[in-house]
Amino acid sequence: MSPWNMDVYIRPWVQFLKNPWRSSWAVLCIALIILGLTWNQSTPTRLIGFVPGSYQEVDPRSCSVLYRPGRPRKIVSSIEEFGGVGDGATLNTRAFRKAVEQLSKYVADGGAQLNVPAGRWLTGSFNLTSNFTLFLEEGACIVGSQDPQDWPLIEPLPSYGHGRERLGPRHISLIHGNGLTDVVITGNNGSIDGQGRMWWELWWNKTLNYTRGHLVEIMNSNNILISNLTFLNSPFWTIHPVYCSNVVIRNMTILAPLNSPNTDGIDPDSSSNVCIEDCYIKSGDDLVAIKSGWDHYGIKAARPSSNITIQRITGTTPTCSGIGIGSEMSGGVSNILIRDIYVYNSSSALRLKSDRGRGGYITNVTVTNITMQHVKIPFRFSRGANDHPDENFDPKALPRVSKVYISNIVGEGIGRAPVLEGIEGTVYEDICIRNVSFRGVKMKEKWTCQFVKGEVFDALPSPCDELLSRNGSSSSWCSSQH
Fold this sequence. Notes:
Layout: H1 7-18, H2 25-39, E1 75-78, H3 93-103, E2 112-116, E3 119-123, E4 126-127, E5 132-136, E6 140-144, E7 153-154, E8 170-171, E9 175-178, E10 181-187, E11 191-193, H4 197-204, E12 216-219, E13 222-227, E14 230-232, E15 239-242, E16 245-250, E17 253-255, E18 272-282, E19 288-290, H5 295-301, E20 305-316, E21 321-325, E22 333-354, E23 361-383, E24 400-412, E25 419-421, E26 428-439, E27 448-450, E28 452-460
Parallel strand pairs: 1-2, 2-5, 3-6, 4-9, 5-10, 6-11, 9-12, 10-13, 11-14, 12-15, 13-16, 14-17, 16-18, 17-18, 18-20, 19-21, 20-22, 21-22, 22-23, 23-24, 23-25, 24-26, 25-27, 26-28
Antiparallel strand pairs: 7-8
């Protein structure tokens, strides 16, 4: 077995987080040794967690206080009470829709919980309601239908203008919600399987008519918790909170084949006060990607993503990034905290992506305590693939990137030095990088830099000329960051 095949070690740790009493102490010790390099590094005192309506300091180990439970659910029912059959063959779309419709009657009186027992519950798309908990018991698996007609078409997002992949409308997610308050999707090691291969083949064969649906999408909602489940084989981005606030996603395992197209793990989009923590993600695209709209549609919608904490994420993606910002960032991205991340066998650990026509901004980003193994490029700023929703974008709309603080980064088996490429006509400024070390690159190789300004301290290999520190001056703005 390759020493870099970390699935063998990481999956038991994830299962321990979900159900500690069923994990052996031996497995726990192995996992702690592997993750110790990341977790044992010091956390800068300047870092903060985000509390709704303020920036006060919170417990540095968790940001989950962003979700605030409401009244206890008044009614608890089983999907079987609404005619559901968990045999893996019976289509349960009507049962799920009926259950949510009936249980929505209790929204004003504490809400309701729908339990899904052990079994395979085949279904098409269904919507959730407010003050509602969807609970998957141990051995339960909600399975997405293989018929595209069971994933109806809905309007494109205003900040995208069109479906992300095709013009016009888009397929709804398997589990969907819009305009909701206090929604919980959780369970006891249950799972949701989107059976995405059918959708991926439509994409590969260029026969896809409309943009693929997500596994879970929550829109225009607040006070959302998604936890303690395994999500599998999403047709497209896996978890997509968009135009939301107070969102917590924690203790999740998200898996898709490494060659599956665009199966991002978690994509907070035009959302604020978001906590993503303690997740293992293995996918064919970014593990976590922060977005805020696409070109002139995103600029017009002006729905930024802000106050987002991403911590204790482990995973692999061979062609994409551990943590990405963009490339759809036209509404702006600010106040981002990324820490205690472990990325292996991946294209990059951190990537800021933008392009001409995007506009928008990325500012106040803190990245610290990142460990990586067998990563091609440790971190990079890059131009996009020149993809635009239509021809109406403004090529003069340039992104603004500033105040990016990166520290305490270590990597082994790294393919090359960092690549920081801005966009001609704009300057990525106030870039501060401290205490980074990469083994595997040629020690004489310098970083690749264009259109960036800032400073680097204590870096191996040596940084590019654009980021050389001011003669080691301890009085510079970057050297004082902690």
